[in-house]
Amino acid sequence: MVPGDTLWRVATRFLGTGTRWPAIYDANKSMIEKAAKNHGLASSDHGHWIFPGTRIHVGPGGLLNTLRGRPQPLPNPEVGRPVTHPADCSKGAFLIAARGSGETNNEGQQDLGGTAKKPSALTLLFNDLNSPVGSTGVYGVPYAAVDALTFLSDTGPSRHRRVPDSTQFGAIQLAAAVRAQAECPNHQKIFLAGYSQGALVVREALALLPPDVRSRISGIALFGDPIVPRRLGPEVPADLAGRTTSQCADGDPVCDPSLSEVSRGAALALCGVGGLAGRFTRCRHFSYSGGAADLAAAFLRARGQ
Questions:
Q1: Cα angle vertex 209, ends 206, 211, to 5°?
Q2: Is residue 142 a contact partner of residue 83, using CB atoms and an 8 Å limit?
Q3: Residues near 1 by beta carbon (within 8 Å), at least 6 away in sequence
Q4: Which residues on adjacent β-strands are paired with residue 48?
Q5: In CATH, which superfamily holds the domain spanning 94-303?
Q6: Which H or E run contains 280?
Q7: Taking residues 16-40, what's their average pLDDT?
Q8: d(CA 299, CA 257)
Q9: CB 181 within 8 A of CB 209
Q10: Given this model, what pLDDT does residue 72 score?
């Protein structure tokens, strides 16, 4: 350890920011907390452990239960500091969205992916909901959204298949944002949306939220949700199934279960290249535009009535 280290920095240096460290923490809880206290990295208050500089408070039930019941924003791996979302209660509706694999936060795009010349489905969805202008707020989850090749490598059909760290981090941030908005008066409608990896972020986040917070979510729109060759991550909770629409373009190898394994494998390889190759090969995973966004917006509006 070096001067100024927090337990979080020490832990993530060895364990990463994904699914492994909460379980490892709980398995070694007594030893870690004793060492952390001895080194001045943590303090305790009636069974609750507080780690300065991290915004993480661990309850008596352990870190996994703490994350499930009261998820806290974790440090952004790109900038090394916590990312928080202050609630905006001034709008009648609020959209929280997660962009897709490899999409960057281009200037003016509010972390929704796409560009000014080629707006993403999430941007088009927000523009549709934000009518009249100023009626709907938006928060794009500022997670890493690892590129498609990395995502496919992590989630491919092997014994090492797992939800990427990028996705887990995004889910915890999105869940924290939902909690913040849920503190607003009940008249505000909360909508969630995700494209590609972002759709998985949404499903992972929903699993972190208790029923009382989920009840504040008016509607959910997913585009190109990664469900094949094997479903990854948790299902949308039953209490939100009727408030969720999932748009899948015909032939999209990421979400269309009707494709043969051979066709899907070839299409995934081409889609994973992205960029110009994706346009030239007409990768259906990149085809979500106005039509899909319009359908999703109509669905969300109906659920928000």
A1: 105
A2: yes
A3: 10, 39
A4: 45
A5: Alpha/Beta hydrolase fold, catalytic domain (3.40.50.1820)
A6: helix 275-280
A7: 57
A8: 23
A9: no
A10: 40
Q: Is 189 exposed, middle or buried (0-12, 13-18, 19+ CB in 10 A)?
A: buried
| pLDDT single digits (tens) 176-218 | 899 999 999 888 999 999 999 999 999 999 998 999 999 999 9
List the domain boundaries for the chain. Answer: 7-70, 94-303
Buried b (16+ CB within 10 A) or exposed e, 209-245: beeebbebbbbbbbbbbbbbbeebbeebeeebeebbb
**Tokens of residue 197, six digits:** 């990896």
Task: Kindly state the tokens that stand for 123.
Answer: 């941007």
DSSP state of 51: E
302 vs 116, residue with greater confidence: 302
Highest mean pLDDT among 3-7, 144-148, 200-204: 200-204
Residues with Cβ within 8 Å of 288's Cβ and at least 6 positions away in sequence, in order, are 120, 121, 195, 223, 224, 247, 249
CA–CA dist 252, 286 (Å, integer): 8
pLDDT over 50 (residue 271) = yes
Closest CA to 67 of 18, 116, 107, 34: 18
Query: From CA 217, how far away is CA 94, in angstroms rounded?
Result: 10
Kindly state the tokens that stand for 244. Answer: 């969720």
- In degrees and rounded to multiples of 5, residue 139 shows phi and psi of -140, 115
CA Rg value for the chain: 20
What is the pTM (predicted TM-score) of this model? 0.70
In whole angstroms, what is the distance from residue 229 CA to residue 157 CA? 8
Query: For residues 62 and 2, which has the higher predicted lDDT (pLDDT)?
Result: 62
